[in-house]
Amino acid sequence: MRIVDSVAGYISDRPAGDIGFVPTMGALHKGHESLIARSVAESELTVASIYVNPTQFNNPDDLAAYPDTLVEDKARLESLGVDVLLLPTYSQIYPDGYRYQVEETQFSHELCGAHRAGHFTGVLTVVMKLLNIVRPRRAYFGEKDYQQYRLISDMVETFFLDVEIVPCPIVRESDGLALSSRNLNLDACSREKAPLIHQLISSELDNDEIAGRLKDSGFEVDYILSRDGRRFAAATIGRNPPVRLIDNVPLAGAGEIK
Ligand code: AMP
Fold first, then answer.
1. What percent of the chain has pLDDT over 70?
2. How much distance in Å is there from the Cα of 258 to the middle of ligand 1?
3. Least buried of 9, 108, 172, 251, by fewest C-beta within 10 Å?
4. Are residues 132 and 219 in the same domain?
5. Which domain holds residue 159?
6. Region of 178 on the Ramachandran plot (φ > 0 left; ψ -120 to 50 alpha; else beta)
7. Catalytic residues
């Protein structure tokens, strides 16, 4: 695996051909692995990136607490058959100091966007930059971050970018908890409660009842909302640090919503 720690270095010796790209923020788990395995299976070359993008963190404590497992991540990517790992820095990605931004004005303000000011502008801006640097034929995104996937897919269409955005199903723990890098920050008590989110949004309870039950169990609930044939949840558990968890399920699999 070639490790490239400079955007200029990547561009000056850019891999060509049928490239699959998996952008990540590291602290890799089986969810990321599923995207990478798919890219490796479908592409001549797979490029992965690890970049914890500060512009998508509305909360500095959340950014500071974001897990970092770079040594293990490199070994994992190598063993999965990744060809190139891009590890850019802030000044390489934002030579403009983030003067230029990609902003969506509607859906990005709903769901997570209503609770994380500027989050999706940070996401869309960094993904636009990474796609322009890597120039993949396909880029893989998890449905765990369903709103992110939809916004990126629409951005690519809107700006006529020549890349296919491939959605990948959510990988879960055996108790239903959606895998997330942030799960590393759950203390034992919060880890025990965390699967409740998936259990409840997959049940026949209505959204308000679900929010009530989560609050009763110690969660701080950002939203439980149904739209576009899915039920979406975001809730925070624990204190040291607080861990914000998101999840979604198709309504067809969620029984009859009252
Ligand atoms: P992140 O490192 O959290 O930015 O995630 C990188 C990519 O992995 C994104 O496209 C996520 O949607 C995807 N991803 C994260 N967790 C999961 C999961 N549990 N199942 C499937 N994809 C995931």
1. 98
2. 30
3. 9
4. no
5. 2-168
6. beta
7. 32
